[in-house]
Write a structure and sequence with these properties.
Elements lengths: L25 H16 L4 E3 L9 E4 L9 E19 L9 E14 L5 E7 H14 L10 H18 L1
Antiparallel strand pairs: 1-2, 2-3, 3-4, 4-5
Bound molecules: nickel (II) ion.
Length: 167
């Protein structure tokens, strides 16, 4: 397994639209393992392949407190939504920023697991927000897009300043 470098906002690759994964083979299972290791090391509760510069429809997540329930979904799709709720979100691609985002309170999701089997389930609350956040990444969308333009440009300026300081 390997820890992959995570892209940071405003890297343009975070705007790429991910392609569906047609063959779930050992190479893709290795990517799942690497993404999970990267997510746990960060540490974070979710990671999309887009965030490690791979434009493929794959997300991993683990919202358990014990950090022992790794999950992955290839080609995840929201089938239906119900209700709305506001929750504070953060993102490994936008370090240090936490803001309230309004999303569906529950979603019905379909995708394929690491063996390629189709799975469908209902996610509520924090898990619902987490999965919607990760699926957004596959569409090139970031949680800061839900904030006001003023807030987003402030976050962009801070990110660029941090990048200048690092290099
Ligand atoms: Ni994120």
């Amino acid at each position: 397994m390997a820890i992959l470098p995570i892209l940071h906002f405003p890297d343009p690759r975070l705007r790429d639209k991910a392609r569906a994964v047609t063959t779930i083979d050992d190479e893709h299972r290795r990517l799942v393992d690497d993404m999970l290791e990267t997510m746990y090391a960060a540490p974070g509760v979710g990671l999309a392949a887009t965030q490690v510069g791979i434009a493929k429809q794959l997300i991993v997540f683990d919202i358990s407190e014990t950090r022992d329930t790794p999950q992955c979904l290839f080609n995840p799709q929201v089938l239906s939504t119900d209700g709305i709720s506001e929750r504070e979100e953060g993102c490994l691609s936008v370090p240090g920023v936490y803001e309230a985002v309004t999303r569906a309170e529950s979603v019905r999701v379909r995708g394929r697991d690491r063996e390629g089997k189709t799975v469908e389930f209902e996610a509520k609350g924090f898990l619902s927000h987490c999965i919607q956040h990760e699926i957004d990444h596959l569409d090139g969308k970031l949680f800061v897009d839900y904030l006001s333009g003023l807030k987003r440009s402030r976050i962009r300026k801070q990110a660029l300043k941090r990048r200048r300081e690092k290099s």
